[in-house]
Amino acid sequence: xxxxxxxxxxxxxxxxxxxxxxxxxxxxxxxxxxxxxxxxxxxxxxxxxxxxxxxxxxxxxxxxxxxxxxxxxxxxxxxxxxxxxxxxxxxxxxxxxxxxxxxxxxxxxxxxxxxxxxxxxxxxxxxxxxxxxxxxxxxxxxxxxxxxxxxxxxxxxxxxxxxxxxxxxxxxxxxxxxxxxxxxxxxxxxxxxxxxxxxxxxxxxxxxxxxxxxxxxxxxxxxxxxxxxxxxxxxxxxxxxxxxxxxxxxxxxxxxxxxxxxxxxxxxxxxxxxxxxxxxxxxxxxxxxxxxxxxxxxxxxxxxxxxxxxxxxxxxxxxxxxxxxxxxxxxxxxxxxxxxxxxxxxxxxxxxxxxxxxxxxxxxxxxxxxxxxxxxxxxxxxxxxxxx
Length: 388
Ligand SMILES: Cc1ncc(COP(=O)(O)O)c(C=O)c1O
Fold this sequence. Notes:
The chain has 388 residues and is an alpha/beta fold. The chain is 41% helix and 13% strand. Helix 3 (70-84) packs parallel to helix 10 (270-281), helix 4 packs parallel to helix 5 (125-133) and helix 11 runs parallel beside helix 13.
């Protein structure tokens, strides 16, 4: 049978590939510590679960409007107004089953074949994969360790051509945990305005920040005319399996995404939107506790990695990932990830899973207990020492 040419352009995701390898080893009886996973290990807060279950009991089990329940879109608008200091209404909001479909539909709605999209590298692989899938060319912009894994704004200008149509930013960032400053965001917006570009701002880690405050490009006056600010429940509320994301955008784009939803999944599940309203409007104690615990784990993993010969690790200010430099081990990123998995039972990702500029790095998620993180650190140290 024949398939489309473009289907070959879709990439898998490193975390899922490593998970499959790790599962195979587990099937052979090996114990694996999972530090490759990008999802909180906490339970979804009880008040949110209760709201979802009550919604099912109350009969909210049918189609919703394709862009989201009107009431839910307004709740998201209010949340953005509060967290991004803007003033939008629900017409600027679209709700979808996760941030991923929002990334996908945004690129479909904006990019033509041959258009160029500037994407962070190392960066979340979905951006480049979907950009290629829709026929566009992802142009990597290097995130620099010496700049705390921010890119240099001056590098953006160098990458812009007449074909550039979109800049993707992700702050706090996966995989590095790096955060763009408000000055960076202002400079990015100025460049986007000057060259008439879209900004796709993936803000899914907006609430997972430590020792600093989250800033959104959407806050800059005028920015929302050319910005899609994507966020969702997966990471903030430990709700990866509920599948719920939302984004603020210009109304015309919202109308196009609404039509894309009609033609694909019809609507996001209705009862999860009730749970979302509780998540955004109800008590936030669960989030605060989770952030405190992540902060403790971050300290443990950063300190532990820095004690291992050949590894150095910056202390990230956001998300729940560390991106240690492993060049002094003498191993490539792939060799390092394979070695610690096969010999040490520690599942982490090669930095190259996030682009060519990830060579020389590994990514670990600290969405795991301190006990498991400490055990993983001991294993990594042992495996590297035994190699000599
Ligand atoms: C940067 C980034 N964007 C989007 C997603 C996907 O989020 P969702 O579960 O809402 O589809 C992830 C998940 O790992 C992510 O790291």
